[in-house]
């Protein structure tokens, strides 16, 4: 079955991948900077401002459905910690003196024990959780215990002098664990006062500790910084310059074959290690190819009084370059591979910028800002950002006014994934196209919300 980009009145299938429109349509902006061969770290969350417990709480609820009570029991904390880390117990037997296998806390406690987070066969799941004990558990869950046990006692005592604890009442191991938690900022200074003798863990401290543990595992949010940061332009430019054309041989064997057979018009390739992991209700993703446009977009948001977390997610867009278009040439910004019929597949270096806004209202404002200052409506139009597109692309995983529903059709192998966006009613045709190449492939598909100009593009409209 052929999947092509055509007007809907033809009655034929209408599918579009997230391609570089600058390469498909000359009126779109082009990239002017060369790529660097060096790679950039994907897990770059570098705000100087410590994350609030409220932000951690929103993240835990959004990603895992975790809502902590005001003073969680030890069992509740263990359940939340194991769920956030995605830990499940193995079949290996573990003995417990106070937990039956039917207990709602048994699986979490067993998994944490098997992973070295719990070390005692007595859990006390129904008891109040002391704040010191919560920090000790979090330290082990954050994989910091080896660091902690390097502390000589004098060094540990000096570090915990900032805490309202009686050092003489603590074992050497407890002193070491608390000291490492202080020095690594697993325990933020705002919570030092929570560690008074016999103090119970609050929901605020529990959420913060779990969020911190996720950060040490690289499983919290990934971002370069905030739009308001003085150095965000340098970081954004460096991230783009350091990105490379993404390749995944196993994955591209499937999607390139579909492209060669004209089953899809294109796809984009991404590396999941760069995914922002932002809270869905506060975030959206904006795609483009021109780094100057990205820098100006940050400045535009600042001028409109909007701040947001910013993550650059490298992206490679692939489409068929027709031989009648002439020699594709050579560039650091794209690669080409000639196929059997004389055409080429072009792989173009692009990016997605993920934004997480401070409020839903700021997220809603984004649409009007783009339509006013980054949406091209006529040739030689003034008053727009550099490289503005006729059909800008940005989308949200939650509903927004004036956005339209489309579908993402996604194949993931390891850390890499290929995706093609389609009209909702054409999603099955995309899936069938990929499966005709490899019947064993799993194609994930889900609906999301995109801006109206890009939706019209999928419908074959020029503007």
- Please tally the β strands and state the result: 10
Distance N terminus to C terminus?
A: 28 Å
| Rg (CA only) | 26 Å
The total count of helices amounts to 15
**Which term fits the overall shape?**
elongated
Taken as a percent bin, the fraction of beta residues is 15-25%
Question: Uncertain runs with pLDDT below 50, 5 residues or more?
Answer: 1-49
Q: H/E element string?
A: HHHHHHHHHEHHEEHEEEHEEEHEH
The total tally of domains equals 2
The secondary structure category is alpha+beta
Helix content range of the residues, please?
25-40%
Mean pLDDT: 89
Could you explain the architecture of this structure?
This protein is α+β, with helices and mostly antiparallel strands and 463 residues long. It has two domains: 8-45 and 222-458, no CATH class; 53-216, no CATH class. Helices cover 33% and strands 17% of the residues. It has 15 helices and ten strands. It has helices at residues 21-24, 53-64, 74-85, 106-114, 131-141, 145-148, 153-159, 172-183, 203-216, 232-242, 249-260, 291-303, 360-373, 427-437, 452-458; strands spanning 225-226, 266-271, 283-288, 308-321, 334-338, 344-357, 393-396, 403-413, 416-422, 444-451. A hairpin with a 2-residue loop joins strand 8 (403-413) and strand 9. Helix 3 (74-85) crosses helix 4 (106-114). The model is unreliable at 1-49 (pLDDT under 50). This is SLH domain-containing protein.
């Amino acid at each position: 079955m052929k999947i092509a980009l055509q007007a809907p009145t033809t009655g034929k299938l209408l599918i579009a991948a997230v391609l570089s429109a600058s390469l498909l349509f000359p009126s779109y902006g082009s990239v002017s900077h060369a790529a660097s061969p060096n790679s950039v770290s994907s897990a770059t969350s570098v705000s100087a401002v410590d994350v609030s417990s409220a932000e951690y709480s929103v993240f835990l609820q959004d990603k895992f459905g975790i809502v902590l009570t005001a003073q969680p029991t030890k069992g509740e904390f263990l359940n939340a910690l194991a769920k956030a880390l995605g830990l499940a117990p193995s079949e290996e037997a573990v003995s417990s003196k106070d937990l039956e296998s039917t207990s709602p806390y048994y699986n979490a406690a067993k998994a944490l024990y098997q992973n070295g987070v719990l070390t005692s066969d007595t859990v006390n799941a129904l008891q109040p959780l002391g704040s010191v004990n919560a920090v000790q558990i979090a330290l082990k869950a954050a994989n910091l215990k080896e660091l902690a046990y390097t502390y000589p006692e004098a060094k540990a005592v000096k570090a915990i002098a900032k805490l309202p604890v009686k050092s003489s009442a603590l074992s050497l191991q407890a002193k070491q664990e608390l000291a490492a938690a202080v020095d690594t900022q697993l325990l933020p200074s705002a919570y030092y006062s929570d560690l008074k003798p016999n103090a119970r863990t609050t929901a605020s401290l529990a959420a913060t500790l779990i969020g911190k543990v996720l950060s040490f595992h690289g499983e919290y949010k990934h971002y370069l910084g905030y739009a308001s940061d003085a150095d965000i332009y340098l970081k954004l430019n460096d991230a783009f310059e350091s990105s490379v054309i993404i390749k995944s041989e196993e994955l591209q064997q499937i999607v390139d074959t579909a492209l060669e057979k004209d089953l899809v018009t294109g796809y984009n390739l991404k590396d999941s290690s760069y995914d922002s992991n932002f809270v869905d209700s506060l975030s959206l993703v904006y795609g483009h190819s021109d780094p100057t446009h990205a820098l100006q977009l940050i400045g535009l948001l600042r001028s409109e009084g909007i701040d947001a977390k910013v993550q650059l997610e490298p992206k490679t867009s692939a489409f068929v370059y027709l031989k009648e278009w002439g020699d594709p040439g050579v560039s650091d910004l794209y690669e080409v591979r000639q196929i059997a019929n004389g055409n080429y597949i072009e792989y173009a270096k692009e990016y997605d910028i993920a934004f997480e806004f401070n409020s839903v209202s700021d997220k809603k404002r984004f649409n009007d800002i783009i339509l006013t200052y980054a949406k091209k409506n006529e040739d030689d139009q003034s008053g727009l950002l550099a490289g503005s597109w006729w059909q800008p692309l940005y989308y949200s995983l939650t509903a927004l006014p004036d956005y339209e529903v489309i579908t993402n059709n996604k194949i993931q192998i390891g850390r890499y994934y290929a995706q093609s966006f389609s009209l909702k009613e054409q999603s099955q045709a995309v899936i069938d196209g990929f499966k005709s190449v490899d019947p064993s492939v799993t194609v994930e598909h889900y609906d999301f919300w995109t801006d109206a100009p890009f939706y019209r593009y999928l419908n074959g409209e020029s503007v």
